[in-house]
Amino acid sequence: MRPYPVFAGWIRRIRLHSLIQTHLAFEIFGFTSHVPAMIHEKGNAILNGMERRFGKLALPQILRWIASFQVLTWALDRFSPNFLEWLAFDKAAILSGQVWRIFTWIFFPRFPSMGSPVFEILFVVIALLFMFFISDSIESQWGEFRVNVYTFTTIVGLSLASLVVPYMSEIGQIMTGIFFSAVFLAFASLFPSQVIHLFAIIPIKAKWLGIANALLLAATVLGSGAAMPYLAFVVLVGLLPYIFVFVPAFATEMRQRSESAVRKHRFEQAVGSPDDAFHTCDSCGATDQSHPDRSFRVTADGEDYCEVCRPPVHSSSES
């Protein structure tokens, strides 16, 4: 017995059924099913036009610079503990004229305390190198200009959203976490199969870490108590660039995959599925798919038997 092909067949049928249901949903909604593709194409056209005009103004390797300045402020904080107070996001200070805080909060270091200075320095170095890797990967896919647009729209969106909502403690560090979540989600969406060694040991694909990141954001919002609606608003605004970039692309890809699955299903129905058995034993029900190690024969009267159930053949002298 070989159970794995059976389970593979079940999984294949479940996936096919889900894709067919998705295709039916697209068919039911009609025009709205083309809206994501229209948004995706229109957005690309707008960005292409902006890049031709303002592409020279893009800062190369902007995510590397942000990560480097975070390490620099982390180091300066060791010598001047009050230094970070001038960078932190402070709604009252911004409204009183300290407008630089709208942007400088992104340089506020967000490294956990490791107890030992050696381990803390090691963690900072690893985090910096990992951010360099993410920065180079995203920029190789998008180019400098689009990375700049994604970065600045996320920063400005988070700043404006935090100015609108009531005061929340440690909002600046929360904003920093949301920003780097948006960056990592973009990386995980562009390179879902990229293997990342968690703790330098455990290999995990980027898409699973992206899902874990999204779940962690959701858990943070749900566990924020009375501040939940305000924090949810800040998270949503901070992720708007990600939503506008990737959700239409995901919807377009899902539509194409569902249409392809439906076409393939219709073709298989017309010519016969490759999973259909050619031989089925009329005695025990075994097939050449479930028991590929058995041989099958068709008798003179049209009955199909496997080698285990095949009746003995009698010679003419015995009859």
Description:
There is one protein chain. The protein is mainly alpha-helical and 319 residues long. It folds into three domains: 1-46 and 251-276, no CATH class; 58-238, no CATH class; 278-319, no CATH class. Helix content is 63%, strand content 4%. It contains eleven helices and four strands, in the order ααααααααββαααββ. The chain has helices at 3-29, 35-54, 62-79, 91-95, 101-104, 117-142, 144-164, 171-190, 206-222, 228-238, 240-271; strands at residues 195-198, 202-205, 296-298, 304-306. Strands 1-2 form a two-stranded antiparallel sheet. Strands 3-4 form a two-stranded antiparallel ribbon. Strand 3 and strand 4 form a beta hairpin. The radius of gyration is 29 Å and the shape is elongated. Residues 1-10, 23-33 and 314-319 have low confidence and may be disordered.
Unreliable stretches (pLDDT < 50, length at least 5) are 1-10, 23-33, 314-319
Largest sheet: 2 strands, antiparallel
What is the overall number of helices?
11
Provide the residue-averaged pLDDT: 76
Strand arrangement in the largest pleated sheet: 1-2
Please count the beta strands (DSSP E, at least 2 residues each).
4
How large, in whole angstroms, is the Cα Rg? 29 Å
The outline comes out as elongated
Oligomer: single chain
Report how far apart the termini are: 38 Å
Overall structural class, as computed from helix and strand content, comes to mainly alpha
In percent terms, what proportion of residues is strand? Answer: under 5%
